[in-house]
Specification:
Number of helices: 14
Radius of gyration: 21 Å
Strand order of the largest sheet: 7-8-6-5-4-3-2-1-9
CATH topology of the largest domain: TIM Barrel
CATH architecture of the largest domain: Alpha-Beta Barrel
Number of strands: 15
Structural class: alpha/beta
Bound molecules: iron/sulfur cluster
Order of helices and strands: EHEHEHEHHEHEHHEEHEEEHEHEHHEEH
Largest sheet: 9 strands, mixed
Helix content: 40-55%
CATH class of the largest domain: Alpha Beta
Length: 374
């Protein structure tokens, strides 16, 4: 069952490590919301199945929208799609925007999952990377979320950050684990080329963590979350049972989705489409009823490569039957022979039809996938 992704491209300030598409023209938010509503009317037929299993507001900073503005988008969605009664409806929030009044409003309009952008719990590092919140605001936000009707709370964390020691990482995680968090996304710091951090590293102002420290902190996070009952269901994602992100799983399982808003991508099993990265132009186009997307048709080889790359990163693994039934004999032959060779090296476990990375090798998933791609 397909999903919807809504991109909210506004942030108060740019975090120094970030290269996501976002701007600080907050005065455009109301026009942008109206443009999203128009895009829903113009593009809902992109998905042949109108039953929606997940809705995800990502950004940028979706929590810069008022509950009224989010509700306007949800009402438009409900008018064109059949949203399942138990659909997962996620809003990414930054801690500085969260308080009990806002959360109650979100609950009343149907948001049932919050993904909180915590990232670090160290005030010096938060400031250094230009985050707009302190650790005290994070505690307040988590406290307010915990005492609300939102049961499904997810937290985003970044590790392998210059200036955060192993001890400090562990004590931060231990504090977070005192809250009723159901899901963690934990990513190592990536140095994006368009980010301020990249230039700080080039200028020698910041020293990048080395590979050993990255691997070490990956295992510290992994072991601590594992000991507290969080299952690693993808290289960077951990959840209590039943709280795996349906939005994430759908993406890895190549379920169709419609992406709304600037720079949002869509996928319908045959092609990918994506909207341009210009907020003003997007608003203007929607006012005039003009859809301007780029598109690429996916070849069988591209579809196969995506399938193995994404699935190898998950606990679900790769289905032999899926590869056999959906791709050519030549591709299956390549897959079969490569898997046999890699099993000899002990990288994969077979579970019936499934080829699964050993948990100890999940970190190597991207590297191992290089042999499997065609
Ligand atoms: S990390 Fe999030 S809040 Fe910071 S600039 Fe990027 S999108 Fe905005």
């Amino acid at each position: 069952m397909p999903g919807l992704y809504i991109h909210i491209p506004f942030c108060n300030e740019k975090c120094h490590y970030c290269d996501f598409f976002s701007g600080n023209q907050l005065y455009l938010i109301e026009d942008y919301v109206n443009a999203i509503v128009k895009e829903i009317e113009l593009r809902y037929s992109y998905l042949s199945d109108k039953q929606i299993n997940t809705i995800y507001f990502g950004g940028g900073t979706p929590s810069l929208l008022s509950a009224v503005q989010i509700s306007k988008i949800l009402v438009a969605i409900h008018s064109k799609f059949l949203v399942k009664p138990d659909a997962e409806i996620t809003l990414e929030c930054n801690p500085e925007n969260v308080n009990s009044t806002y959360i109650n409003q979100l609950v009343s309009i149907g948001i049932n999952r919050i993904s909180l952008g915590v990232q670090f719990l160290d005030n010096i590092i938060l400031e250094k990377f230009n985050r707009q919140h302190s650790k005290e605001l994070i505690y307040n936000a988590l406290g307010d979320l915990e005492s609300s009707l939102i049961e499904n709370i997810s937290v985003d964390l970044i590790y392998a950050v210059p200036g955060i020691s192993d001890d400090s990482l562990i004590s931060s995680l231990e504090i977070l684990l005192t809250y009723n968090i159901k899901h963690f996304s934990a990513y190592s710091l990536t140095i994006a080329k368009n980010s301020k951090l990249y230039w700080k590293i080039q200028n020698g102002e910041v020293i990048e963590n080395d590979e050993n420290s990255f691997v070490n902190q990956y295992w510290l996070v992994n072991n601590l979350l594992d000991s507290k009952g969080y299952k690693q269901y993808e290289v960077s994602n951990y959840a209590k049972e039943g709280f795996e992100s349906r939005h994430n799983l759908a993406y890895w399982n190549q379920v169709p989705y419609l992406g709304l808003g600037v720079s949002a991508h869509s996928y319908n099993l045959q092609s990918r489409q994506w909207n341009h990265k210009n907020i003003r132009k997007y608003i203007q186009n929607m006012k005039s009823g003009i859809i301007e997307t780029d598109m690429e048709m996916l070849t069988d080889i591209e579809k196969y490569n995506e399938y193995v790359i994404l699935k190898l990163r998950t606990y679900q693994g790769i289905s032999m039957n899926f590869v056999r039934n959906n791709f050519s004999d030549i591709i299956f032959d390549h897959f079969f022979k490569t898997v046999a060779k890699m099993k000899e090296y002990g990288h994969f476990i077979s579970d019936g039809d499934l080829i699964i990375s050993k948990q100890s090798d999940l970190l190597l998933a991207d590297y191992l996938a290089k042999d499997l791609v065609y």
